[in-house]
């Protein structure tokens, strides 16, 4: 690459000499500048200020060869994130910098030249690991009726990455791409059981720009089929849209949501055609004081699904038992505080393998480790207890950062 660049400079100079007698003016190449880097390329220079000799690439380079440890300034004019590694072969442990796309003229300069490989990725996570988080679950002794999109009795998690892709993680540490893009246009995603009446779990999503509600039917393999409109509009007036399981007792999954303007909690019963029926009031007000609703499954031992809700002002976690009259009963405290340190709740049933639904969470900046907050991106898992609550949390994996939601 260095040779090619030098050749092209020599050629330009040669033309000038042969042509017009302006050779004196052109004999020394103009000072390099960040603007010399063409759109679509990552460019590096031997000088600290986008000067000296320029090198460019539009593909990942595992070994910079003669440019190894030569780049003192660079600009990223691709549309990808450029992982700039200290070591060859995209080895992250020696250190790396995830460089977002730059605008023309920008550059980053350093006195020392330590860059040894460069990789282009869609999300920052991929500089050091997979785009999806590593999720592990045990086989449940019984079918939970939710949380399992591929029917193997292992609870699955769906992760949305920062590039708007959707990943299916079946519980063995692997991930499969099930949505190639555009999912960041959805500002609510929820799944819990079968809405389309084929026995397979489905995903429900609200489109931010239209307020429409879409059903993405599960195919039974963890993938999603062609979507179907189940709410023609107005869903942006609702908060905390939560697939919930069958509260009405007709063996069809139902949806709940809080009306932003009133704080009322509404139940939207699933219908025989895979749509939603006329809504029914199940909470007369005050539900705006809750900043998370979790369809945890049936944890009270009857046949109805139950709800966890987090109180914003206290960080308490409450259990609202589903009742035989398709309502919610008197609440019970199951978490006395600290739950506001959770960015996400993942209620995918029994992942510990004892038959009882469990709760997984991903932490936010408030999460405290060893007395200090500022620990986002931890997966903390809570095994379900037979009293409807959960055991104390286990800090499971610190690599759940840099995602755009888990479901
Ligand atoms: Ca599964
Ligand atoms: Ca279905
Ligand atoms: Ca129902
Ligand atoms: Ca369990």
UniProtKB/TrEMBL annotation:
The keyword Signal applies. This is ATP/GTP-binding protein. The lineage of its organism: Bacteria, Bacillati, Actinomycetota, Actinomycetes, Kitasatosporales. Keywords: Signal. It comes from the Bacteria. Residues 1-23 form the signal peptide. Transmembrane segments: none annotated. Pfam families: FG-GAP_3 (PF13517), Inhibitor_I36 (PF03995).
